[in-house]
Amino acid sequence: MGHFHHVGMSMGMSSGDDNSTMAPSHHHPTSSASHSHGHMMTMMPMTFYFGFKNVELLFSGLVINTAGEMAGAFVAVFLLAMFYEGLKIAREGLLRKSQVSIRYNSMPVPGPNGTILMETHKTVGQQMLSFPHLLQTVLHIIQVVISYFLMLIFMTYNGYLCIAVAAGAGMGYFLFSWKKAVVVDITEHCH
Amino acid sequence: MHFIFSDEVVLLFDFWSVHSPAGVALSVLVVLLLAVLYEGIKVGKARLLHQALTSLSISTSQQLIEETDQNSSSSDSPQVSRTRLRWFLCHFSQSLLHVAQVVIGYFMMLAVMSYNTWIFFGVVLGSGVGYYLAYPLLSMT
What is its main location (chain B) (predicted)? Predict the structure, then answer.
């Protein structure tokens, strides 16, 4: 019987196995096998739920047990999602700025002798060791890490945290893209 | 954890649990339409932005022409506030579309996480069909 529970626990989701009928909607595992074996301490929920008891958040020390902690986690996730949107737009702006500067640098056109089109190859992208490219790379790494964190937070299937991710993304897009769109509007008319 | 072909799947919500091939087929259809909608929203956001920029650029250039003609002072004319309101509404609707895009994107990720191969095919096919239908609309003006 312990083996059966172990198999059921390790699958953790709807499976093709006829024997185990897991109820994935249960957030708190009631079987005693989790304490005896200790292989999987908590089951991952597979459907959305609203609750704030025993919610693990990303790291082993971060467990939410009270409403106050859930409120704090909501705010933190909201700010993280807003920061992610801001980072995306800041990277776009930085890229455009560094590329525009390179384009202007290569514009110097032909001298009085009639020599034509000197440095057209400079318009393509950035140099690899230039500071803008290194900065873009560092920001890209941060962006990838944050995006995976947000995915993992959404994967907790906790309704409050998922709403925090979605609302933070919306608010971040609203605030940061507003500024970007105004800037884009102005610069695109100067050409 | 690995991909399996299964007749049972529980997707996203407690009530969405199916145990029959017909149920799974219906779920695959729903997920497919969700993926098509996701691609459509991406294109819709870009088009909204493009429309806003073109329409508001016309109105701001008209304002500039009027202001230079009239030699008006620094106070905002009603034209400017109307433009700002239109821009605000446009940007707000884009933000709502962005929230919808984020949520649907995460739903699709969670659907694939069910590790049901039929659902995965539905997501991939839906993304392909959605891209095929929506992206030509991007270059239309």
Answer: membrane
Q: pLDDT tens digits, chain A, 191 residues: what are they?
A: 444 333 334 343 433 334 444 444 444 444 444 444 445 555 788 889 998 888 888 888 889 999 999 999 999 999 999 999 999 999 988 888 887 655 555 566 666 677 666 655 555 556 677 788 889 999 999 999 999 999 999 999 999 999 999 999 999 999 988 766 655 554 444 43
Nearest partner of B28 among B131, B125, B102, judged by Cα = B125
Residues of chain B with C-beta less than 8 angstroms from the C-beta of A167 = 99
- CA gap B125, B110 in Å, rounded: 16
- Mutation target vs B (from A7, A22, A80, A173; most B CBs, 10 A cutoff): A173
Nearest to B9 among A14, A165, A167 (CB): A14
Distance of alpha carbon A81 from alpha carbon B133, whole angstroms: 30
b/e A107-144 (16+ beta carbons within 10 angstroms → b): eeeeeeeeeeeeeeeeeeebeeeeebeeebeebeeebe
Q: Do A167 and B99 touch (CB under 8 A)?
A: yes
Contacting A residues, span 135-164, partner chain B, CB-CB under 8 Å: 151, 154-155, 157, 162
Name which of A47, A152, A155 to mutate to probe chain B: the one with the most chain B Cβ atoms within 10 A of its Cβ: A47
How far is B43 from B109, CA to CA, in rounded Å?
20
Q: What is the DSSP letter of B11?
A: -
Kindly list the domain boundaries of chain A, sorted by start residue: 55-103+130-189
The H-assigned helical ranges of B71-140 are 78-112, 117-134, 136-139
**What CA dihedral angle connects B102, B35, A48 and A171, to 10 degrees?**
10
Q: Contact at 8 Å (CB) between A51 and A27?
A: yes
Q: How far is CA A127 from the centre of its chain?
A: 28
